[in-house]
Design goal:
Rossmann fold, binds magnesium ion, 10 strands, 226 residues, alpha/beta, binds adenosine-5'-triphosphate
Amino acid sequence: MSEPVLTCDNLHRFLGKDETRAHALRGVSLAIDAGRTYAIAGHSGSGKSTLLYLLGLLDRPDDGTITLRGHETSRLSDEARTALRNEHLGFVFQFHFLLKEFTALENVMLPMRKLGRLAEADMRAKAADLLDRVGLADKRNRLGNHLSGGEQQRVAIARALANDPALILADEPTGNLDHANAERVFALLGEIAHDRGQAVLMVSHNPELAARCDHTLHMQDGCLLP
Ligand SMILES: Nc1ncnc2c1ncn2[C@@H]1O[C@H](COP(=O)(O)OP(=O)(O)OP(=O)(O)O)[C@@H](O)[C@H]1O
Ligand SMILES: [Mg+2]
């Protein structure tokens, strides 16, 4: 078995100050293997988003370690963490952060521009293909703020896949979508994992979708249940 894409060991995170200080993560350890889909389930406030931010190298733990593609990240500079993030991770978060004055196509091309490995025409073709796969072939030239919430979410999913990341981290990726589009996005994430060997870790409040992932992790009060 090849080494996991990502591992974390004994993560702790405190959020807030003084009387609002919360022990949001209390010793979380896990390993994510290539080619697998993982769901994180758990009540509101159990620490799911906090965990995703840490694993995405968007926040630093108060204790514990995160190793991404063999790189132990705790002592790395912000620049080194950003470089690892751009190369190996894709994000779909609850707030999509599309650039409103850019078209759908340009939004999907942004991570490719940051990585700087493809020629302009190849970036365009790849972004168009990804938008096609999320059912937005006809909206590729629409501005971000002229798309519905569910359309923006699908652009965000296409954008997360732009650099063929080793791991896609998704917070409720199907939350704002109707049944047909939720199925389409879920199927796409499954294909990405099973056909292309990327890994997907998604927070989901939908028990039916969570059960269809290869693994379901349950969070409660900042801990993963055994
Ligand atoms: N800035 C903050 N200051 C204090 N406590 C915080 C802060 N941000 C989050 N928390 C607390 O940390 C805990 C974990 O929050 P988190 O957002 O990870 O939950 P979640 O499982 O993603 O919930 P949801 O399903 O509602 O998105 C919660 O108890 C929350 O109230
Ligand atoms: Mg959350």
